[in-house]
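Exercise 3.2. Students should predict the tertiary structure of the chain below and write it as structure tokens, then compare their answer with the key that follows.

Predict this chain's 3D structure.
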Amino acid sequence: MPITEFLSRNAELYGDENCLTEINFDVSERQNVPWKQYELIESNPTGKYRKEMTWRAFEEKANRFANLLIKRGIKKGDKVAILLMNCLEWLPIYFGVLKSGAIAVPLNFRYTAEEIRYCLDLADCVALIFGPEFISRMECILDRIPKVRLILSTGENRPGFAESYEDLTAECSTEAPDVKICDDDDAAIYYSSGTTGFPKAILHTHGNLVAACITEQKHHGQTRDDNFLCIPPLYHTGAKMHWFGSLISGSKAVLLRGIKPEWILRTISEEKITIVWLLVPWAQDILDALDRGDVRLEDYDLSRWRLMHIGAQPVPPSLIRRWKQYFPHHEYDTNYGLSESTGPGCVHLGIENIHKVGAIGLPGYNWQAEIVDSGGRPVRQGEVGELIVKGPGIMKCYYKDPEATAAVLKDGWLYTGDMARRDEDGFIYLVDRKKDVIISGGENIYPVQIEDFLREHEAIKDVAVIGLPDERLGEIAASVIELKPGYQCTCEEIEEFCRQLPRYKRPRKIIFDTVPRNPTGKIEKPRLREKYGAVQLVAMQMQR
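Answer key:
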């Protein structure tokens, strides 16, 4: 059954019920979107703008867009790119592409013009829909995207080179198009959220998307009474695949534009949110704001909030210990996944296993997991090896890249590139990315272990440990430390704190700087290695 049938079922059963709400507190963003269409809840500068959509309206909008694409010559298997900020139209547009039989290609809203051009070309996109925030970037590449024959824009500030999504879809039928779709049909291309270089195009089928729905709902038990707060970008598999639990249960969701702690807590309170998925930096920001007294829990009604879960990157155990101090009654879960596995859930902790905080958990529903050595053989319990997974969400391939596909798909197993170990109870712990392991004087150093340790320091907000070149040892571990606002610390204090670590694990270099993270919360270590590696090489040359 294609995933679009869940939407049609919900429209039939719950047509007049609200399914999606978009909320924005940020005055600075409102000039870029048609806010006159929104209900003004409060008119003061800190007010909230809000817009709702019912299941029937969702289905009708998706059908209109599907019919428009078909009318304009888009055929089954054609690729349609989506370049939008999170907004109420995002998911109807995505489902409209799927209903037409075309393949949806969500694009990262942080892409540069050249990255947009590259991704459009790699995926062979013939159509593109974009928001007003991207007009200038599109103008830079218009003469270099010859495959794209249909360009649509949303909002009022339509440029001359694009046609109006709103005007054209208003003329199209709300009836579902007569396009036959099966589980094996291609559905979407997602780009890997790599932290450097150009991303790979990951091809998923309708069966992959349905598997993500089932796994997510099985893990977190969404019912019709739930209301899911979605903050991460919808172009990424993580946010959307967690929302799939709301789709399968026919429950509500809220799209919040903005990540300030007070906005998150206010939305949870006023919208009666029950489930929140956070990235590590946002959870840290909430805790820090509570510590400082910038926000107070007694100012919000959080009685409906039952579950907070985190994914997309290793979760420091210290963070969850702090979280439980403020929110002792919350269920908590960690989700592990990759875009290549249709997002989160191939490994997950489980709300019943909070005593194992620090682990990413056990194989998810309908999934298998192993930890293997360089020859693909399972390692012994406690030994470090590469995590591999097998299940119904495994990608079909890297589009147009058979060599890269063969490197990670072997006998039905996906080789994740993540180093991990298992404890005596079978729980899996991430050790680090294979490419981030530091080899110093012949010793393997796993940065995540040092990062978790350093985050225990009361002054440290975030930390990244990277390898820098060293003439004698090959590499040394360097810690890039971002301090909490209002805190001060010296290199000597950090070095003294690190004396609790084995000598070979102690960072040889301490750097105070901002720790950059991409939109999905992953630390951009290549940027740091590039920035500080060059400095280290110059220092080595001067010492000769």
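Discussion points: The domain at 438-543 is CATH 3.30.300.30 (GMP Synthetase; Chain A, domain 3). The chain has three domains: 4-258, 307-433, 438-543.
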